[in-house]
Specification:
InterPro entries: ADH-like_N, ER, GroES-like_sf, NAD(P)-bd_dom_sf. By secondary structure, this protein is of the alpha/beta class. It has two domains: about 1-120 and about 290-320, Medium-chain alcohol dehydrogenases, catalytic domain (Quinone Oxidoreductase, Chain A, domain 1), CATH 3.90.180.10; about 135-265, Rossmann fold. It has helices at about 40-50, 55-60, 125-145, 160-170, 185-190, 225, 245-250, 270-285, 300-310, and strands at about 1-5, 15-20, 30-40, 70-80, 90-95, 105-110, 115, 150-155, 175-180, 195-200, 210-215, 230-240, 260, 295-300, 315-320. The structure holds NADP nicotinamide-adenine-dinucleotide phosphate.
Amino acid sequence: MKAAMQSRYGGPEVIEVRDIAKPVPQEDEILVRVVATTVTLADSAFRKADPVIIRLFGGLFRPRMTILGDAIAGVVDAVGSKVTRFKIGDAVYGSVGPNLGGMAEYVRVKQDGAIVLAPDGVELAPLAGLASGYLTAMPFIRDEGQVRPGSKVLINGAAGSIGAVAVQLAKHFGAEVTAVVSGRNAEMVQALGADHVIDRTRRDFTTARAAYDVIFDAVGKSSFAKSRDALKADGIYLSTVMSFGILWDMLATRKGPKRAKLATTGLRPEADKLKDLEVLNDLLAAGAVRPVIDRRFALAAIVEAHRYVDSETKAGDVLVTM
Ligand SMILES: NC(=O)c1ccc[n+]([C@@H]2O[C@H](COP(=O)([O-])OP(=O)(O)OC[C@H]3O[C@@H](n4cnc5c(N)ncnc54)[C@H](OP(=O)(O)O)[C@@H]3O)[C@@H](O)[C@H]2O)c1
């Protein structure tokens, strides 16, 4: 099979498409023929080992996980002898788990991993992108931000993979949503349900005073210190991006009243992600959430896909189709 592989850390050019043996599922695994996967800034971070902390679990000198790719959509090609949840031919989507490997024509996934049947009547490939943004956005909006009817929520980076899902989830939970984007993405976030849009090239959202219950910095480009005055008295600043600054802010603000929080999808138990994907199927059925696709690349164009994601200008998801 073909797989996008890297044997060293670095720029997009370290990734090469190679032919390797098709994997064989173990007794509790399914083998998925990948229809699509997605490239995100998290993949870029693993590719570059930046932040450097990635080397601690991703390989000190060279990448331990030579095939990147977490979220996938595909069709079950083979099942292990003890698999009961899936059968050959099922359309599935979700996360392949902490060892990655989704950027390939086939990937093995534990049958009790974060993978679910795709709903009928929904195009399969975009679910790879949606699963990726959703699995990060949901715990921030529902659990860390405790967004509820009437909450005033600002989402910085609302046009990104995580931000675009966060806008839809915050609206689903009944919030009044302000989306921060550059002007070119204003219509897109309005179509996703944003009540207000701030063009970040014209206005700095941190100049607001006591305006928001939750500021979700989906791209981690601001900080708790800058956002503090824009939060209400007991407001919460959430960031997706790990840094010493946010770790310090979390410690310093743990007793409130205003708090800073970070959550990491990679550290969530697979069982929790599985439950959330089942919720996502309900949200899709209810029309509460939909995928937003920016561009599709063939596997052979994987280097260009990484270059585009590195530009930090994509709106919604980048898919890689097999
Ligand atoms: N905590 C976790 O577990 C976890 C999991 C996955 C990813 N992440 C991290 O989450 C971050 C966001 O990922 P993503 O995939 O959603 O990003 P993304 O899709 O690549 O975000 C792209 C968007 O960011 C916006 N943007 C660029 N520069 C900005 C700035 N200075 N201020 C505000 N917005 C800016 C751009 O929109 P506009 O031009 O319209 O503003 C662009 O459309 C990444 O750093 C990723 O590593 C964290």
